[in-house]
Amino acid sequence: MALGGGVVFEDFFPVMVERLGAEGFMKELCNGFRLLMDGAKGMITFESLKRNSALLGLQDMSDDDLKCMLREGDLDGDGSLNEMEFCTLMFRLSPALMQTSKDLMEEALAFEF
C-alpha cells in the first residue's frame, strides 16, 4: 500500500496478530501510540509525529503528507490523534485486518439470527 508521496506500507499486522494474539497486538498498538504522542498533551500532534517520524521510517515524508496522515485518522476534528483514533487508523491501513474484522462481524451476526 502506498501512502502520500510514494511511501510503501508493508502490511505486517496480520502476522503480528497471529504471533502476539489479539490482546498482545492491541498492547503493541498502544505502545506505538505512546511512542508517537506528545507526552504533555497525551495525543499525537503534527509536531510529535514529525519529531518521531524516523521511528516509523517516515523521515522523508513532507509536512503535507504528515498532516494528511493526521487528517485521515482525526475523527473528532481536533487536529490530533487520540489513542482510539490512532488504533482505528492503523486497522484501516491494514486491508487484511479489515477483511478479517468484516468476516468476524458477519459470522457473529449470523449467530444472532
From TrEMBL:
The protein's matches in PROSITE patterns, at most eight in alphabetical order, are given as: EF_HAND_1 (PS00018), EF_HAND_2 (PS50222)
InterPro entries to which the protein is assigned, alphabetical: EF-hand-dom_pair (IPR011992), EF_Hand_1_Ca_BS (IPR018247), EF_hand_dom (IPR002048), KIC/PBP1/KRP1 (IPR044205)
Q: Which Pfam families match?
A: EF-hand_8 (PF13833)
Q: Which Gene3D superfamilies does the annotation name?
A: EF-hand
- Record domain EF-hand: where: 61-96
Domain of life per record:
Eukaryota
Question: Which residues span the membrane?
Answer: none
GO molecular function terms attached to this record = calcium ion binding
Q: Which UniProt keywords apply?
A: Calcium
Specify the protein name. EF-hand domain-containing protein
This protein's species is Prunus persica
